[in-house]
Structures are given as structure tokens and as C-alpha cells.
Amino acid sequence: LLIGSLYVIAEINLFNQFLFDREFISHRTDWDPTFDQLHQTAETVTFTDALQRSLDLVTKGEINAMVFPFVILFFLVFMLIFDFRGIMRERYIPALVLAMTGIALLYGFYFADLKPWVFLKNQSMLLKTFRIDRIFFFLPVLYYLLFALLIKRAWATGKRWMKYAAYVFLLVNFLYVPLKNRELKANVAIFVKGKPKSMITWKKFFAEDLFDRVKKDIGMPQDEYRTVSLGITPAVSLYNGFYTLDMYSNNYPLEHKRKFREIIAPELEKSPKWEASFDKWGGECFLVSSEITYRPDFIPYEKAVDSLDINTRALYELGGKFILSSLEIRNYKALNLKFRKKYTDPETPLTLYLYEVMPPEKGELDG
Q1: β-strand 348-357 against 337-345: which pairing, if any?
Q2: DSSP readout, 224-278?
Q3: Is 314 strand, coil or helix?
Q4: Which one-letter DSSP state was computed for residue 295?
Q5: Please, are residues 263 and 315 in contact by the beta-carbon 8 Å criterion?
Q6: pLDDT per residue over 34-79, tens digit each?
Q7: Which of 3, 146, 173, 199 has the fewest CB atoms below 10 angstroms from its CB?
Q8: Which neighbouring-strand residues pair with 26?
Q9: Interatomic CA distance for residues 288 and 310, integer angstroms
């Protein structure tokens, strides 16, 4: 009850929009029910693909709800072989297995391009806009609840060798999970060897000192102008107090998506992947470039963009005054941008280029 109440307080705007604000139209209403938001691909999910994804979830887990269930699944098979009747007489174990199977199938088939399912989602705004497949977040808890019930059942048989088997599976799982957990292994390595210089820490990622210099050079209250970012996630700019037109958001006005698309339309035409992601989903409302390849830490491999193709008139009309870019924009003059300054800081690998979006009339006069 306490957690639920705190969630409502934290998401009060979402509840207000959903229940009372009839004028608010979410970008989620524009979702394509067949677009795979999880894997960000323009290809449709076939029946075979859906089955494979369900199987992958059961055996490997998912990045947002990581679990390493190999030992637990093996224990389940073991118990079904040696105590099938006892397992089937249990009230909760069969129900848990069925529930987990249902969750896996829902996860796998949620974005499947199957006509009856697509028709059903298009008829229900709730199914179309509410990610019910995210129930897979419960899988880690359900797996270990199943593990506990299997151990309890092994003890209930009264057979000594079954009790020993339960001990063995418990010990093996205790050793197996840490070996498979990359984050845990990385943290142990840092504890033993210290932080590698190349590691992107919180301080390096958000680069507060560097952005403080940018704010000082702009010299205006931050609520009086809007920014967009190129080559860095908008979260960095938001964290440093900037008011951004770009965002990674699960719910924002459809009107803003439409207007922002005018800015990036030329670049979307160059990249089917970005175009499908924005038009069919739109959660990543970003300034994009077909020339950028991102590393896992969200820092581009490239150092410069030769031919950024965006509509700066649309950007200016939407209120955008500055572009915060981690890459040099070499054709900035052709885009009616003014290069203000390049920023570096020894505390972060981030290099920042500040560009000012000039009024369209100014650009036409200069031309």
C-alpha cells in the first residue's frame, strides 16, 4: 500500500492526464502495434520469432529483469522426473509454471505481426498503448519462489537423497549466478583492481563542471531558451538544468512528436531504422544523424558529422536556441547555425560543441 501510494504521488501527472485531462493526446496513441520496441528493428516479428523470444526469456531472462534460471529449470525437470505425482499434487508449483509460461508467451508475441492479435490491439487503446508484456518484470521473483517451493517439496518427500539433491542444487545456484552476472563481476574487478581509467563514471557521464561553463557562456536564465542534443542522451542536458525539446520519454504530447519530426525528417529519410523507431514508436525523441554509431556507453565512435541534415527553421520555430553536440558539425553554416565554443574538461572524455540556432530571417539576409 505504501509503495503504491508513493508511485501515485511520483506519477501524479500521468494519472491526471489519463483520468482527467481530455485534451492531452499521448504519443502512445500513434504506436504501431507490430513495431518491436524492445529490439528496435524495422523487421516484423513472425510466429517463429515470437516463439524464439519466449524461449529466450524463459532460459536467459531479459536485460530489464535479469535472471539466470538454468539451475532452477534443471531442478524443476529433476523433480518432475523423480516426484511427478507429488509435484502435481502441490497447489502452487503447477500454477506458477503455467503463469510463467503465460508471461513468456505474452512477452514473445506482444509485437508479433499476427492479424488477429494486431486487430485486437487496434480495437483496444489500452492494449495498444499499455505495455502489458512488461509483466515479465515479475519473472525473477517467480523463479525464486518456484525454487523455494521445489526445495520445500524435496524435503517433504522424506527421502534423504532428495534432501541432499536440494542442497546440491541450492549450492550450485549460489555459485552459478555470480559467475553469470556481468555487473557483479565488473564490480568485484573494480573492488580488487580499482577503477580503469576508461570507465565511464557518474561524474564523467554528466560532466557537471563542463556544463556549468556552457551555462555561464550562454548567459541567459535556462528557462528562457530550449536546447537539443546531438551525440549525447538528452538526460545529460536535463540533469544539468537545461530545458530540452528532445527526450527519452514514455509519455509526451503527440503534437510535440509531430513538430519534432519536422526537424529530423531529412535524417529519418536516410535511415530506415531511425525512421521506423520514431514513426512507429517515438519514445526516443532525439536529434539523429545517419553518420553516428553509438557505443554501449552512449558516446559516439565518431568525432564529427560531415553533413547533418536537419530543419533548423522548424527547430527555431519550436523554440530551439542551442544545440549541445558531442561531435563537430562541419556543415553548421549551411544549417544556419552559429558556432559558439568548444568545451573540454580533464574530468570527462566528453567534448562539447555549442551551436546557436539563428533566426531564419537572419540566415536569409546573410545569404
Answers
A1: antiparallel
A2: G-EEEEESS-HHHHHHTT--BS-EE-SS-BHHHHHHHHHHHHHHHTT-HHHHHHH
A3: helix
A4: -
A5: yes
A6: 787 666 665 678 889 889 989 999 888 887 778 889 999 999 999 9
A7: 3
A8: 253
A9: 9
